[in-house]
Amino acid sequence: MDHRTPVRGAVPRVARTALPLLVLALLAPACSGGVEGKPGASGVRDPYFPKLGNGGYDVSHYAITLDVDPDEQRLRGSVEITARATQDLSSFNLDLAGLTVDSATVEGRPAAVNRAGDELTLRADAKAEDRLRRGETFRVVVRYSGSPKTITDPDGSEEGWLPTDDGAVALGEPTGSMAWFPGNHHPSDKAAYDLTVTVPKGLTAVSNGVLAGPPTTEKGRTTFRWHTAEPMASYLATLAVGRFETKTSTMAGGITVFTAVDPEVAKASARTVARVPEVVAWEAEHFGPYPFSATGAIVDREDDSGYALETQNRPFFPGPPSVGLLVHEMAHQWFGDSVTPKSWRDMWLNEGPATYAEWLWEEEKNGTPAEESFEDAYEDEDNWAFPPADPPSAAAVSDDPVYGRGAMVIHKIREAVDDDEEFFALLKGWTKAHRHGNASTADFTAYVEKETGQDLSGLWKAWLYGRSRPAADG
Ligand SMILES: [Zn+2]
């Protein structure tokens, strides 16, 4: 619990949210020109991470330019954010953890920046503030520099900026992306991205999407330009800097396959990484068309981070992945990356289906029925600590019940449907209905009931929300 407000502690949270804006309101009149605006909220009231994200605007595009010095673990950069105001704004916030803000502009005019912890409050000057009226599109540029920080999650895992032996990797679930660029860091605000990264010659900078052109080298430094056209939640943005063996190919459907593997683990990873197109195609058969124009994988050394992450287009693996892990992270491209949770309470909508994808793979490829995986998960005490749709705290959003019991919910739906063709049509319909959008648990349960025509309130009560373990056939 360093910079984040802990879980559901209503009193300190309200106080901390209100304070910076209160101070600001006292220091300056709320409105100096034509806009009778109000400050954009400093958080979007996520039930677990209330200060993540910001209210009053919707980002459509991030153009991030970074110069990375891996020896010193420093970076210098700028972000140009294109956003649309969803209210008349007198000021608005961006999330940024660590780093130093060197300057900021709104519509090319110098903007005042007030910083309180991870919250930047920007106020446009009188000539630019008309662009902050509801419905208007505005451009913000923030220049920043420093040593990006590693963030320790409530559950003790590390994210944000993670130094590696030969560079660094940026991982952002659930809050880490604010460690390397200012933005609206909540999964509910998805945007397109362009990332231009300059690193010492000999190193590679890998990110999401596709390369917008060949890398260029000048004065011993190489620049990589990555373009992500499809909407992306900021926690799925990544940057891996280091020595990588890269391969580019095209699979069926014209999808670009870009893989980047640390040479130290290249041999041990080769067989699994070569199966990326096969796994994507198999999952497309079960979950619907692959939602993105690019896929691939980033495989770094085993000591780089303790966990894999479904970074968009290109999952990150700390060391050679198993096929099961590849299946899991790739399934997230549908469940999590394309259909993104509305809040961190809905994390099981990511992890339940991704875990179930592993069970399905075992069933079809290795002859272990999903029923057997269900029984193993059912017998595992760790899966019964809390209901998957209601983790007790921010520290628990990545705990076993969200995965194992989340997958059990999907299995119970499959049993209720009692027809595999209909069951997979249901999954495909879900990924189609919310493609490139956001969805909540309530959206999911309503969708399943509507499509199946069944009242499944008993199933939700027992498996999704119930505190005790129901009978396995209940
Ligand atoms: Zn997962």
TrEMBL record:
<dbReference type="InterPro" id="IPR050344">
    <property type="entry name" value="Peptidase_M1_aminopeptidases"/>
</dbReference>
<keyword id="KW-0645">Protease</keyword>
<dbReference type="InterPro" id="IPR042097">
    <property type="entry name" value="Aminopeptidase_N-like_N_sf"/>
</dbReference>
<protein>
    <recommendedName>
        <fullName>Aminopeptidase N</fullName>
        <ecNumber>3.4.11.2</ecNumber>
    </recommendedName>
</protein>
<keyword id="KW-0031">Aminopeptidase</keyword>
<dbReference type="Pfam" id="PF17900">
    <property type="entry name" value="Peptidase_M1_N"/>
</dbReference>
<dbReference type="InterPro" id="IPR014782">
    <property type="entry name" value="Peptidase_M1_dom"/>
</dbReference>
<dbReference type="InterPro" id="IPR001930">
    <property type="entry name" value="Peptidase_M1"/>
</dbReference>
<keyword id="KW-0378">Hydrolase</keyword>
<feature type="domain" description="Peptidase M1 membrane alanine aminopeptidase">
    <location>
        <begin position="325"/>
        <end position="463"/>
    </location>
</feature>
<comment type="similarity">
    <text>Belongs to the peptidase M1 family.</text>
</comment>
<dbReference type="InterPro" id="IPR045357">
    <property type="entry name" value="Aminopeptidase_N-like_N"/>
</dbReference>
<keyword id="KW-0732">Signal</keyword>
<feature type="signal peptide">
    <location>
        <begin position="1"/>
        <end position="30"/>
    </location>
</feature>
<keyword id="KW-0482">Metalloprotease</keyword>
<feature type="domain" description="Aminopeptidase N-like N-terminal">
    <location>
        <begin position="60"/>
        <end position="236"/>
    </location>
</feature>
<dbReference type="InterPro" id="IPR027268">
    <property type="entry name" value="Peptidase_M4/M1_CTD_sf"/>
</dbReference>
<dbReference type="Pfam" id="PF01433">
    <property type="entry name" value="Peptidase_M1"/>
</dbReference>
<keyword id="KW-0862">Zinc</keyword>
<keyword id="KW-0479">Metal-binding</keyword>
<dbReference type="GO" id="GO:0004177">
    <property type="term" value="F:aminopeptidase activity"/>
</dbReference>
